[in-house]
Fold each of these.
Amino acid sequence: MEETVTATLSPICVPLPAHADTPKKGGRLRLGLSGGSTTDSLDPATIPDAVPQSVNWSLRNNLVEISADGKPVPELAESWESSPDASQWIFKLRQGVEFHNGKTLDAQDVVESINHHRGKDSKSAAKGIVDPIKEIKADGKDTVVFVLDGGNADFPFIMCDYHLTIQPAGTKGAEFEKGIGTGGYMLVAHEPGVRALTKRNPNYWKEGSAYFDEVETISIADYSARTNALKTGQVDLINRCDVKTVHLLKKAPGVQIVRVTGTKHYTLPMRTDMAPFDNNDVRMALKYAIDREQMLKLILRGYGSVGNDHPIAPSNRYHAADLPQRKFDPDKAKFHLKKAGLSGHTFKLHAADAAFGGAVDAAVLLKEHAAKAGIMIEVVKEPNDGYWSNVWLKKAWCTCYWSGRATEDWMFSTAYAADAKWNDTFWKHDRFNQLVTAARAELDDAKRREMYGECQKIIRDEGGVIIPMFADYVEASSNKLRHGKLAGNWEMDGQRLPERWWFA
Amino acid sequence: MTLFIISILIFVGVEALPGDLTEAVLGQSATPETVAAFRKELKLDLPPHIRYLSWLGGIVRGEFGNSLANGRPIADLIGWRIGNSLFLAATTAAIAVPLSILLGIVAALYRNSFFDRAISMVTLSTISFPEFFVAYILIALLSVQLIIFPSISNINAQMPFLEKIHAIVLPCLTLTLVVVAHMMRQTRAAIINILASPFIEMAKLKGLKKTRIVIFHAFPNALSPVINVVAVNLAYLVAGVVIVEVVFVFPGLGQLLVDSVSKRDIPVVQASGLIFASVYITLNLLADMLSIISNPRLRNPK
Amino acid sequence: MAFFKLLRSSPLSARIGLAIVLINIAAAILAPVISPYGETEIVGDVWVSPSPDHYLGTDHLGRDLFTRLVYGARNTIAIAFVTTVLSFMVGALCGFFAATLGGWTDLSLSRGVDIIMAFPTLIFALMVLSVVGTSITSLIIVIALLDSTRVFRLSRAVAMDIEIMEFVEAARLRGEGTWWLMRHEILPNAMPPLVAEFGLRFCFVFLFIAALSFLGLGIQPPTADWGSMVMENAGAITFGIFTPLVPAGAIAFLTVGVNLIVDWFLHLASGLED
């Protein structure tokens, strides 16, 4: 049963002449990144954003890693197998791996690291995804057994989550800030929200990995400041490029653009438990009232692809390519609105750029589109501050994003199943829920494809979410940097950039 | 006393903000159970007045406590940032204050001349531009086009002094452009106002030179409003430069305060708020004292 | 009539200032008439260069920049004016009271203002607006309140200086009340520095709104306002695109205009001749 799962992500990457180079060691990599805050911590349970994600994965490893091809490949686990119903998983650990403090990795470290996210007292953001683990135990020094509360054919993917890194047993509280792990770099200095400095772990177990002598991660929240820092050579790579100006940045000397299509998508969730969005005709009216092509062109400048009102990306394994693309259709929008008896109603759309860069602009654009169908939308700009606790899951209609998930089941059971923690449309659909549960334990590939196909159709036609587009990860770097095939599961080469890239 | 009231107000203010640290840190991935567990760990489940009193107890013993978000000691977190903020403010003030007073005096001296009008237009235009925009323009010119100064000023403790100065030239210049106009115009207005007084007429009739009148007779009498506007601007330079910090990636206190407010990290907000308040109060006391010293009438109350 | 006489005697600079302000006001009033497109209408690609179709090109969403500018005049000037007037009414009144009454009134008002001012303005506004939400009304009230603390300090300082003048002493001995003193003695004499401050405060409102929108709060889109327009397009300057200079220039233009008039007033008030 080892590696039941085949390709799930096939990132499209911009071909670079750099591919052929053989990696070489040396140099100091300076990253100028958005997504850091002075309140960041290195406790994997509460890692919030890109900067600590990247730093954490330079310092620590998971049991399983997602390769550039989107497959789960062994990291600290050497191999794994499951029971026939996929409800019990046994992971064999790699031998002789040492933490930065000299301790040798064993099963107890893994058990405690995963348990850090479980249980009643857990404050972990990953609690939801480890909840299905009923029991976890060490079997000797190098075997860990997971017992799940039901079959899950995609369990190894779960072990790739960025919160689930492995620390030495007994790490707690302020000790997390020391950043002890088994990773390719060791922490030298960390000033949250300002910079993190790491140096290469001379003792790193992973062959052909972690080429830089030092990696300095500088938090630069302002996009123009990041751009300028790259142009003036003060940093070697910046993330989250503003797609509006990428075509201009591309022309700057010594700069290359790195672009990957992954699973990240922008959503406009409508609460199906609140009027007027409890009426599917209202939802359909709004789904037809949006000109996705223009939104893709103006908001993402083409750096992405149009969405079809379901969260499964073209790069996902079971993406339903045969589902017709939803088009801008003012007449149909009018028809559905009239059927709902709400002609002349003004819909409030709550937006903030905290949801995604350009969310407010997108909302304004949608207002313009809907006006063509005679639908009135009022855009309410919310403060970025506190957006996730005050607006998302609270207001009837708002803007949101999902970085997407590596598997269909993970995505559905995170945000669309009736009992999902972040079911942000408060949507309950019996047939859909049955399908998701059944498909999770289904091992026949064809049957699974059929089930997930139907799931996508149901969300598209009855769900509470508008998904106008999938967004590319766009980064810009000095053209002295080289890399292999790019991963699309997270930004910056699946957030593994410091150990996968090198200087020419 | 004032500080005590401020500390209560800050506490109440941050408490009044919707959401708390746990929700802010967990963000999109918060669930009721994890939030509850997190709160318990940070003792955020205790009633507000108890948390406030325990914080106050710490302060009285001279302990700022730890950041709620990452458990680091607040004294460490804030210590070097105060140094950075004061460094930037002092450097800017050393340029901006003499410059604006000088310009103000010269403009008053040659009022309505070409020079006066030109300086007035230029300063008005510079303050009409939002400060982040001034910063962007300076970067585009002096950092990207002519590669003279770095575009980000992420100074750290190990940097030698001269390198630090070089790193902060652009933020310093930005802030100077932002504050000079205000101080310069108030200086000019105050002097011109005094020039209408009878004792200046008197001096004129005595046949004193115009320059002498403005510098030795008018300016000392115009000091009170000038000192006030300088104090306000100095306080601004220490506390109000969040945006310049963001644009230049300068590790100052403002950025820390904004981040802590948005994450509801109350002890950090309290500590940095109090520091700003003390700076402000000190500057104002100084301003009041200097005003009194400079005005003979106030010096000898009836 | 007296006004026109005054106008005829005014220097060129004041006339230019007046013309600038009038142009802006006219643009604000006539916005729907003179703008070629709708306020929020998307008419083309992003950041298109100026052409006969789009006099100033387009903005970051492909809206006509000239149209946005004209509508922006309408929203921005109205907001800035109301805010500044409000802050001066509150601030100057409290400042004069503090100075004339002295004692406890002065102490409590001054301490209260100190407390508000001791916390960085931008962060204070950020916190308050996060709680009450950002409508135009709440923006106006919050900015006016914060601005009024500055006005308070200035007017108190100025009034203190006037308060000890002989003519105030004389009026007091005549038995005039506080209100009378404030209106007839202090206000006229405190006018020049206050008016000078008004000219600056007026344009600080634009800047404050711009700063707030930099931190993610500010005027609700798609309403056009100059401060947010600078913010939204600011990144373009890095690439040598002039778009953000247009709204910034508009703010500068109006500021210069307002302050030219202020200078003229100061000149008249000072009674100096040259």
Amino acid sequence: MSLSNILEDWSRYRKDREDGGFHDYEHMWGMAIDLNKCIGCNACSVACYAENNLPVVGREKFSKGQAMHWMRIERYWDEPDLGDDRISEFNQHGANFIPMNCQQCNAATCEPVCPVAATYHTPDGLNAQVYNRCIGSRYCSNNCPYRLRFFNFYSYYEDAWPAPLEMQLNPDLSVRDKGVMEKCTFCVQRIRSVKDKAKMDNRPVADGEAMPACAQTCPTSAIVFGDLLKHYDPDTNAPETKVTKMWRAHQVELGKPRQNKQNPELRGYRVFEGLNTDPCVMFLERVREV
Amino acid sequence: MSNKVNRRDFLKIMGWGGVGATLAGCDMPTTVTLEEGKEQVTSYLVPEEYVIPGVGVYYASTCLQCPAGCGLHGRVREGRILKLEGNPESPVNQGKLCQMGQAGVQTHYNPDRLTRPMARKGSGLTPVSWDEALSMIQSKTSGLAGERFAWFTDTVSGHQAVLMDAYRESIGSSRHYVHEIINNSVARQVNQDMLGDPQPHLRFDKARVVLSFGADFLGTWQSPVHNAVEYATFREAPRGVLVQVEPKMTLTGANADLWVAVRPGTEGVFALAVANALSAKDPARLDGLPDKARQLIRRYDIKKASRITGASGDHIVKVSGWLAERSPSLVIAGASAEGHEHGYDTVAATMLLNIILGNIGKTIESSGTFPFPQLAARTGGTKDLIDFAKAVDDKELDVVFFRGANPVFTAPETLGLKEKLNKVGFKVAFSMFEDETTRMADLVLPMYSPLEDWGTHVAAYQPGPSVIAIQQPLMQPLYDQTRGFGDVMLSLLKMQKAAGYSDYPDYYAYLRDAFSAMPGSLKNGASDDEFWASVMQKGVLAVDTGEGRLSANVIDFDLPENPAKEGAYHLVPSARLGMWDGRHANIPWLQEAPDQISKVVWDSWAEIHPNTARKLGVKTGDAIKITSASGTIEANVYVYKGIHPDAIAVPMGQGHEAYGRYAKGRGVNPLKILALNTEGKTGELAHHGTEVQVSRTSVRDAMVQFGGSETQMGRKIIATVTADVYERTEGEA
């Protein structure tokens, strides 16, 4: 270890102590999901099952809320259309669909409550789960305001993939056992392989190269994924990523519990950002002609 | 030699043979030494051809989960297919896939696949060898009078269809029944009669207004993924308006700016009333129309149409306003419009709107002429099912080959197909699964999965540039007693001594030769090998269909003055993106994927309106009994405001009596209780025209639904802005 390394480490340590919450991020993976384009078709969810070795739990366990859908489509009806029949006889503006996966919060409420630090923040800005470290206290799931953490109540590998279904399992990530919490990783294994490839080619990761399974398959391209950090670093020559452009166009910034938009009509928002979870997923509001 | 593995041996095995040790590790006795185990140990230093250890490689193929023909990229790693993604080269899906496509791997790896040929001995099916199976076919077909043989299939195309035709002709039969329960046969007939093109290109991306009468184009209609890709453009600024008119909210209806519930069977009246409102503002719009059409349009003023359809008059005004202001528009009609006795006239009325609005040639384009008619899709609907049942009943058929379609599951009970099939002496099922039809077969031939087989496909709906989609095997067959469809057809043709097939050792050789024989204009000067390699790499072969012109011929049609019966409940057998016609009920991912609208999993349900629920005294989760003249089904209800009070919707896809562990004994099949009404002009089954009685019944098992809340409870999870805000902030400057 050279002196310069020691000094570098020391200054990073000092900065962390002095500026609370400082992270030396390599990337900040984020999303922009356009609800004007999302049709609620569920392709993202099944793609996630295929990519991430998610077990099918069956009807009984599903009814107990034990389904393992890291990416799911929530559907709500317009409120005036329910509640009181006199307001409207029909759901005349259709349904409200929203794809919900882990919001990869920068101030994640799940992280500080883990007694064993099984959930932590990576230098990629991801909220990661270390399966080997997890003891199954489920505090994180209890603290997630989005209900996007999923607990293995059973050893699903015993019967979720009767032969030869198990041959489909993705060897790039593990099959989780009973007692372990799991969640959306932004397809960290796909990010990993793209980063490795870029490193071997000695170049930065290009925009659109890293692509989670959900964004890849979305028929309307409603899900845009990329590195949000390009926004904050004026020194790099790399062009701004598409996702960063969208965040900027909609005047949504990381690190704020309340956006102070110059144009309040812009559609960008983050779900429950008032809780100061600082999610990395921005949604664009649904649009309806009236 | 000691049988214990010491540390050194263990390290040798691990270091020496990564594959053998890791892949076969679970099955290997723990006490094998390197010497004893060496035959199972293959070093990664000698990888198989095209295998890079640890690296997934993508190969192009074609998705066969529905007839749309989307291009695939399959990720193959260490000889296993792991994941399917859309092929960006395919003009159909442009790199995207729906949930059914994503789940293609679970069709392939399904634990309930058939693994060996079986023949009926007595009441059961017993294993036989392929040689025995093929010679059984030969003995049953030799000396058979030609017309006593028939194919019964789902949509087929490409070179498989060529071989099927050749075999049929070698026997001397002209009978090929094509059956799809999710079809657009009635609309195809209208398109042919009015536009001179059964399947024109539709341009959702160009349209400013889309008015859809029950066409679930984002879910189950024609080419859902392609339509969704175009829909994304449609929703970009300047943002198009989507209006959906139908009795039960489809996935497309759930995305509409305005969803209009109409009484079942009255879509045509709504369309004519919109035409009436358009002509009231601008009488010149009706110039050039025949008198009969003008009279029809004049017949439905807003007040009358509103009374018949049950839709509010304001909505008719609003829709006609949008159509008048924004051009071009696109009017389409799907299952709920087609599925009545006057379905043809209803669809004609919607097409009349396209003519009045000048959409022909703008958002509806000619598909040109496909240069290889022998490869084009043979598609069909339910007329062939009805004709087939009659032919079987009249004892006109001795040998029937089934492939793809599952008529015993999809046929209404009143057709009595299951019993009638006993009159066919020899039924052969080319099948991957023991479904209801395969179970009745006398000979079951286990097929390769679509990911193991060769093929070419030409989808019935070719969006934009027409393509021949290439299906190539993505991995070795899982079972050594299964065979490829093309290979079996070639064997049969050789047994028939049909001219021109004896030289091909297998279907691959046949396809190679067929591609070599393609015209030079497609090869761009490449050698045969280069051409083949490039086609395999791309997964699609674009073919020029030339310029075509659509006619705008207003045909003579009529609607019943009031096509609806008020106060009667109509059964809507709705189609779901996911289960499709029931062919995906054996895929666990799709069983566990909540329905987009009701969010129910692993089950059937009945959708009813709150008014109907109040009349019946039921709430969501209670059970009802739905009775038609031909049977009864029971299901739990889902009460919501996305359905007309006169309609009861039960989704298709469940209610299997066979078809593997995930499908069997789950939910009910609404197709079973359909009445045998047929559409007047085409003879298709009027599948939305069944009247039913509904009553409350005792509680079934609880219905399992995803999500705890029907509304957002005032929280800002999904916010909505109006289109003018969107236009202000993101519209074109």
Amino acid sequence: MHLDPFELHRPSSLEEALRLATAHAGGFDYLAGGTDLLPNYKMHLNLRPHLIALDAVAELRGRGLERLGAMERLADLERDTELARAYPGFADALAEVATPLVRASGTLGGNLLVETRCFFFNQSHFWRESLGYCLKAEGDRCHVVPQKERCYATFSGDLAPVLMALDAEAELAGPGGRRRVPLGAIYDAAGDGIRRHRLGPGEIVVAVHLPAAARARASAYLKLRVRPSFDFPELGAAAAAELDGGRVRSLAVAVGGLETYPRRFDELTAPLVGEHLSDDRLRAFSEAVMRAVRPVHNTFLAPDYRRKMTRVYVRRAVEKVRERSGAAA
Amino acid sequence: MGSALPPDGFTLLGGRIPYIEGPLKVTGRAEYTDDLQRPGMLVGRLLRSPWAHARIRSIDVSAARSLPGVYAVLTGERYPTPFGVLPITHDETAIAVGKVRYIGDILAAVAAQDEPTAERAIALIRVEVEPLAEHTDPKVGVTPVTDPIHDRGLNGSNVQKEVAQHFGDVDAAFARAAQTVRVRGSFAGVTHAFTEPMATIAEATPDGRLTVWSATQVPHYLHRALSEVLGLPMHRIRVIKPEVGGGFGGKSDPLPHEIACAALALETGRPVKVLFDREDVFLTNHGRHPTQNDLRVAADADGRLLAYDLSAVIDGGAWSSFGTVTTYYNGVLAMGPYRVPNFRYHGRRVYTNRPPSGAMRAHGGTNVRYTVEVALDELAEKVGIDPFELRRRNALPPHSTTVNQFRITSTSFLACLDAVRAASGWDAAFRQLPYGEGIGLGCGFYISGSNSPIHFTPKMPQSTVHLKVDMDGGIAVHSMQADIGQGSNTLLAAIVAEVVGVALERVHVIRVDSDVSPIDLGSYSSRVTFMMGNAARRAAEDLRTRLVRGASELLGYPPEQIRVGRERFEVAHRPDVSVTYLEALHRAMERTGALTAAGAYSSPPMGGSFKGARAGTAPAYSFAAYVARVRVDAETGEYRVGKMWAAFDCGRPLNRLAVEGQIEGSIHMGLGQLMGETLNYRGARLMNPSLLDYKIPMPAQMPEVECLLVGEDDPEGPFGAKEAGEGPLVATLPAVANALYDAVGVRFTDLPITPEKVVKGIELRQREGRPWKGE
């Protein structure tokens, strides 16, 4: 298995990167850590003739409690004790991404925009050809849920759920200018699932911003997978809350690894605000999250098990938040 | 850690001997096949079938052939002679002839100047086929089917091999049984997942010879297959085995790509390399057979075994490979470590349109061992005795014969039981740990070398070792034994050094090369230590005799009064009178020049005279008793094995470091099959041909392992040794399964035991109103 040739560009500023993106519109990928993109390229998945490497763009670096540059390496974020103290759930999630070796290259932005995954997509060219390809690459039908409209590949990043639960915002820069949106808004919940995000052509995630309120919250992230390292999430459950003597001041819960995009459950957490976070309420809430998710059979563990575990993992994530807040059940 | 010095007056054997090739491997200097370069070498590539089962109508290679940079394109009819590792089941061809039988079957082979050109050529080959009925369920394949996969299937079915054996009277035993248990074990296919993907280089030279370098466990069988298929006499073919990065049975068949690579070399006159990627490895498979076992056990009121009644349906995939052996082994390897007076077995191995199954570490013994040991755990509970006591009551005694006429010589099985019971704190833990925690016992038994060489004609020793020493004093050791990482080179050197009394560094194990290495049948069936070890010992003793004669002449004492010291030869009753090793050597060389010596091993005749009686006969057997501790999250079904105590009888361990490594590696591999490894098929399609989706346990999942080596010297093993390469695997799986039962009260008989199955099992037990351990 070899990489087909491509032209590598290495801009040293955001402006230059965006210029290259405009020049090669439709024919390039941004290259961050490469730990996801390059294996996919080896499998001949959606190859582009140009790669625009972002590692020399200084504006994409830097980390503090309020701003995390998108090109920060996961291993550097993981080693940052100040970050871990402020956002324990973020630290949970960082430690669960792939392996130490992958985290040494992998970046924050790369994990947020990691390609969605599916048994029928993450395969060699020979394998996919033998099945007539799929909706997400070179084909026109989905083999998971047989139809021709929507792709069901699974969102497999670990960092998005917890950052969404912390009300993080994404700072974006594109040929058309800059904008800042809630992190969850970069994912296309209403789309066809083939594209994993709603960024405009050439648009780059520059940084993630965390509001002051995030630092008042305790947080946690729990990940279901077959092996305790290496594996992508079969389910990731994140919770963040500010508790006042066991009473909910704010609560946010988000999951990944279940559907095409990471998802936050504000409609289910809203009724809990102001309430005492009792075990009974927590059980009912976790049950409701379970009922809301629709995993499909395109990862290792069966979808009904992943759904069932959603209830357990969400409950445990919130319990951990409660523990970290020092609040009683 | 053992003591620093080996016991019983040995200087090396019995101690901890680091692998002699270790420094080369850890510095990246060891040469594997892919590290080798030949001038003008071409890239070989294979076109694989995207169809599971189809008749080939036409293959148009004209566009591929005319692509600049392409040197050859071959299809099956060029070398259509069938081959296979067993002479009785030659059903493979180097490249498909007439039909393809699984997704991944080889349709054509290309040699080109570089990888991109080879891939472009592959893409230009046009194949037309007529699809045939796909067969993926071996249970259906036992009956006559439309479009059977091979024309050799029994009565128009896909049955490749059927075994029916009956010893004693099983029905009568069940009629008088006080207790019976039944276990239906279901085992998904697993594969070896060795580190080094297969690689082969072949080169045909103008002197009419063909040289093949290949990552193989069985250079001799490859040598034979190349000769048969390519139509060249064996003496014109030279097979070289570079370093091999693991095999576990996956490199123990001569494989189609090896022959196709050689064919490309003959066709082009240029060296050709075929290097596999991981998907190629998965599609080549030859891993452990998916198996359905149905075992009934009869016992008396005290738990003494009366009979086993076993049937099995085994998924062979597209080829026979070792399947005839597998079909026998899956029955007869139930015949230890217990005395079973009556035994009936009906086994069927069925072709399916999937990558072939074959031999994998503890071949044929793993799934049936699991079935037996889980059944015995259940039996102990029914009888109301401790699982250890049940095993003690039924242990095969030393120097006994099983009902199917296996010759049992040494066994320290009882010592294994006692050692592991004490070390694991069993008596204070069994059924006494809190709900969710468990402890379990699993035992094992495995052949120490197959008594039957695969080829019977001409009749020759199973292992031969040659030594050559010149005046520099270095001892060159030649043998075709195949070190694939298990440490056989180190053992070979250590045996020679020990017997001759020289430093290990004087002994040079020469790379396997059929031009110079005398035949040893290779690394399979845990035969190397036992067979090569005996051959090496005899060769070294032969050499020592010549050296002693030289010393005797120099010292003026008769040879029988000379004894071997460290790099010296001394007069036994006057150690101050001695000559150095080199002095003795040079004296011995005066008449003949460089000394040569040889040793060989043939196993003694054994086994019954009924059909299939040879299967499972071995010159010795290893024994094992393992205890596992587990902790289960009863809500999610996730579990972790915290510790394994591994009591093992390999006779005298000759290299403790290697034996412990084999035990730890076996436990890792066994846990993989138990916890999550599975060749995940949808129909004929393998869904997880990568090391990301094929779930080998991570280091973080490894339990602490405590090795307890309790064997006594085997009467026929070299220095008393028996095998330690495969037997250490089989006890792992049932030990954990029985610990899971102790933890949550559920018998798991469907492997792998994934967390979802644990949750379902607990829920089912709860629905049936059977609370467990105060849950």
